[in-house]
Model the fold of this input.
Amino acid sequence: MTVTEADIVELDRVAVREAVRVVDLAKGEDWERDTPCAGWTLRQLVAHMAAQHHGFAAAARGAGQDMAHWREPADLSEPARVHRGAAAAVLGAFGEPGVGEREFALPELGASFPGRTAIAFHLVDYVVHAWDVAATLGVAVELPDEVLGAALAVARLVPAEPALRGPGFPFAPVVAGPAGAGPLEETLRLLGRAPERWPTGA
Done:
């Protein structure tokens, strides 16, 4: 089935809202917990998520090349509130008519991409980051099969060569796993996560 612009925007919306749901579960000392993103606490991960939302929102409106839009928030005293606002900003930008036909400048990837492709990148990021947060908190992520299938299709296209993975690159090396893994597990492993280390987030 061909995924239309409306489809990818809606699938991304579902992933972003699930990420908001699980971030909103965090309380007090949870913000200093380690996460599946090596070296990042939950507070640092959520700061990154908020920055990415604002950066993609700017890219949707033709300003993605300005690195100021990709900076992490200066005030993270209320991480969930900051993240919620950032999520609303990106969903608003992606909901504008014709967004899939625009060019998105994504400086971290060193290129511009058609809107539909860029939104697909955002989708897979928020499927994985929703899981990251859920795993950190010891809860399950709740995403429908359509979202997981779309994210897996994108994850399978990410170059897996070791020279393009690890420090300095967007993704860690692929983590091998059992044959027949479900779409979420396969996506996580393709993008450098080891789900068995965070079993309560499964």
